[in-house]
Amino acid sequence: MRKLRSGVLLATKYQGVIAGAVPSSRGLLLVDCPLRTDDGRDWAADLASHGRSRYLALLDHHPDRALGARVFELPIVAHEATLQIMRGWPDAFKGNARPIGAEADRLKRVTGVSKAVPDLSFSAELTLHLGDREVLFWHRPGPTAGSMWVILPDAEIAFIGDTVTVAEPPYVGEADLKSWLDSLDELRSNAFSSFLLISGRDGIVEREAVTEMARFLRKVQLRLKRLSGRPESAARVAKGLIRSYRIPSTRRDQVLLRLQSGLRGLYSRLHASKA
Q1: For 116, phi and psi rounded to 5 degrees?
Q2: For the chain, which residues make up each domain, given as ranges?
Q3: Over 184-241, what HEC string results?
Q4: Mind listing the pLDDT tens digit of every residue in the chain (275 residues)?
Q5: What is the topology classification, in CATH, of domain 2-206?
């Protein structure tokens, strides 16, 4: 567990997600949670000496950050689009029928997990006064329709979810690329010049990572024009896109599958909207 300024905590040891905890005079706000039930219990035990957990914020609906929420039995804060998606999940998670390269595919024991549904949702912005700390929740679509940021104005820390990823390319199957690029422009503005930016996949990221993320998404926009809708087309484009990443050989197949699945999903959505 890593301690940042103003006592904010990060857990970096869990597969697929960086979990955070924000302290206040009234207890902790958790940001995202581990996928595995055992890891969730481990995170809760680590936090026990730091105060009582009060809320859990989910930065989007992706199972690797949201599926383990039931372990914590806390009021959940999420965007209303995330609420709608999670409300539609089956009562018990059975795993993806078709692997898409997500952590939930690889962790085969993640089955039969009861879902948790957000209790507190919002459309554009929400402010939570947690004791002596003001916490802002901002809707910032891009990676998903319900993606949001958690902003701590006093500590100048922003949890930005999948808006920026560094080690591996993000899943783009549910992306709104224009909104995503707008969010990246915002992170590069003077308003965030002194903020610590916390990626939901990589922890603290530098400003150069924001620029690199924008560059990657613009490549995706260009490559989409080359897709024909055939599986082999997505595979070829995905292989080209990951050349700028140093992917360990042990993860290359999974990362390629996730990127291919995302490209096919994004291509299908874009063409369906034009039909």
Answers
A1: -120, 140
A2: 2-206
A3: HHHHCCHHHCCCEEEECCCEEECHHHHHHHHHHHHHHHHHHCCCCCCHHHHHHHHHHH
A4: 899 999 999 999 998 899 999 999 999 999 999 988 899 999 999 999 999 999 999 999 998 888 889 899 999 999 999 999 999 887 666 555 454 445 555 554 455 566 789 999 999 999 999 999 999 999 999 999 999 999 999 999 999 999 999 999 999 999 999 999 999 999 999 999 999 999 999 999 999 999 999 999 999 998 887 766 565 688 888 999 998 899 999 999 989 999 999 998 888 887 776 55
A5: Metallo-beta-lactamase; Chain A (3.60.15)
Q: How many helices (H) and strands (E) does the chain have?
A: 8, 15
Residue type, 93: F
Residue recorded with tokens 């080359």: 226
Residue listed under structure tokens 């690199």: 212
